[in-house]
Design goal:
Two copies of one chain form a homodimer. By secondary structure, chain A is α+β, with helices and mostly antiparallel strands. Chain A has a single domain, classed as 2,3-Dihydroxybiphenyl 1,2-Dioxygenase, domain 1 (Roll). In chain A, about 20% of the residues lie in helices and about 30% in strands. Chain A has an eight-stranded mixed beta sheet with strand order 2-3-4-1-5-8-7-6. Chain A is globular and about 45 Å long. The interface between A and B is large, with 46 and 47 residues.
Chain lengths: ~140, ~140
């Protein structure tokens, strides 16, 4: 079996019905000052913003477009909730090979994610009910872009 | 309004039906080598283990005792899933005062959490559907204890 391990926890994805309201909540209730402007990511069907903590990052995501994967999630969880965990990997293709070798279902071909690097998602049924995103480590810090 | 802000993301709490199976999954599928032995935390009704990544921590939790808050969660999510986010705060009592002043419901009196410092939980209905734990920053690094 090829050697493979995930790296740092890059971010926690939180689905929200209203991204402006969510940003206001993190700013006003929790005092977070470093929050990025919402941006659309059409390939993933989401609009996202990063809540940057002194260490750790929450990615707020809300549906973009008509076929967003977040729409169904929000139908089940109208107030929003935790949507995925993102672990960094050195090389996405090695990661996909390792995951498939180890019996984990990879849900998509690698595509560009919110940090500008390639990402895949794993089936939550193989990972204790948690939707896991694997993301190639950004070469520079794109989290504040 | 008193000045207050949360600090780093300390960990992500993930509920699991079988903590030994979850540990094996993080070790064998994701190649994580630094995972603590399961420990019981009777005041919170959980058995927990920390999955320590190069940066970031997943706290695996499973029910302990007859009145565990995790039991209900697992009835709704039998495979497990993301349960809470934990942000560090400098002083738990200041945090409670700030949260209450800002209209956030605090669910418990401060009590000792898995890192040995005082913690409270906030009502998910006030925080975008996410159960938030606020935890006094450990004085030393207790995450590998």
């Amino acid at each position: 079996m090829p050697k493979f391990n995930v790296g740092p926890l890059n971010h926690v994805g939180v689905a929200v019905p209203d991204i402006d309201a969510a940003i206001a909540m993190y700013r006003e209730k929790f005092g977070v000052t470093d929050i990025t402007e919402p941006k659309d990511l059409p390939p993933q069907g989401v609009t996202y913003a990063f809540v940057n903590l002194p260490s750790g990052q929450v990615e707020l995501i809300t549906p973009y477009g008509d076929n967003s994967p977040i729409t169904k999630y929000l139908e089940r969880n109208p107030k929003g909730g935790q949507h995925h965990l993102c672990f960094e990997v050195e090389d996405i293709r090695e990661a996909v090979t390792a995951m498939e070798t180890r019996g984990m279902r990879v849900l998509n071909e690698p595509r560009i994610g919110a940090h500008g690097t390639l990402v895949v998602f794993l089936h939550p049924g193989d990972a204790g009910g948690v939707l896991i995103e694997l993301m190639e480590t950004p070469k520079a810090d794109a989290s504040h872009a």
